[in-house]
Specification:
Blueprint (H helix, E strand, L loop, with lengths): L1 E2 L5 E6 L2 E7 L5 E6 L5 E4 L2 E4 L2 E7 L2 E6 L2 E9 L5 E6 L10 E4 L9 H7 L3 H4 L7
Antiparallel strand pairs: 1-2, 2-3, 3-4, 4-5, 5-6, 6-7, 7-8, 8-9, 9-10, 10-11
Length: about 130
């Protein structure tokens, strides 16, 4: 890993794979390039893959383009600002329908393997109540 003068990751190299990040003077990420893949650009809440608009961030979620339709996805967050529910808007024609994706950590041992796929630090915070 190579860091820039702001202490941000500039390049990550593993074998022949190289991930390069470009930042502005204040440390905001402007571009991510992984090998010969299409670069990803970030501009004040607007994200492009190459010249194709991927989505626009809003305070309540995001707006994304699906073909010729603009779809609004709303994020329901907990008190720490973590997204817990994504309300995915359907297209005007109803081809996708509205989907709700819910990520809940029950912290039960029986669901530990499934929950660790969705939550980064859930294993560190899980407590076995049998030992208390």
């Amino acid at each position: 890993m190579v860091y820039n003068h702001l202490g941000l990751v500039k390049t990550v190299t593993k074998n022949s794979d190289v991930l390069e990040n470009t930042y502005d003077g204040t440390g905001r990420k402007l571009k991510k390039q992984f090998g010969s893949q299409t670069p990803r650009y970030y501009m004040d809440g607007v994200e492009y893959e190459g010249s194709n608009l991927q989505f626009i961030s809003t305070p309540y979620g995001r707006i994304r383009k699906d073909g010729s339709d603009w779809l609004f996805d709303y994020f329901l967050k907990d008190h720490l600002g973590n997204v817990r529910v994504v309300l995915e808007a359907g297209s005007a024609g109803g081809s996708r329908g509205g989907n709700t994706v819910t990520y809940l950590a029950t912290m039960e041992e029986s669901r530990a393997s499934e929950e660790s796929q969705y939550f980064e630090n859930v294993d560190k915070t899980r407590v076995d109540h049998r030992t208390l």
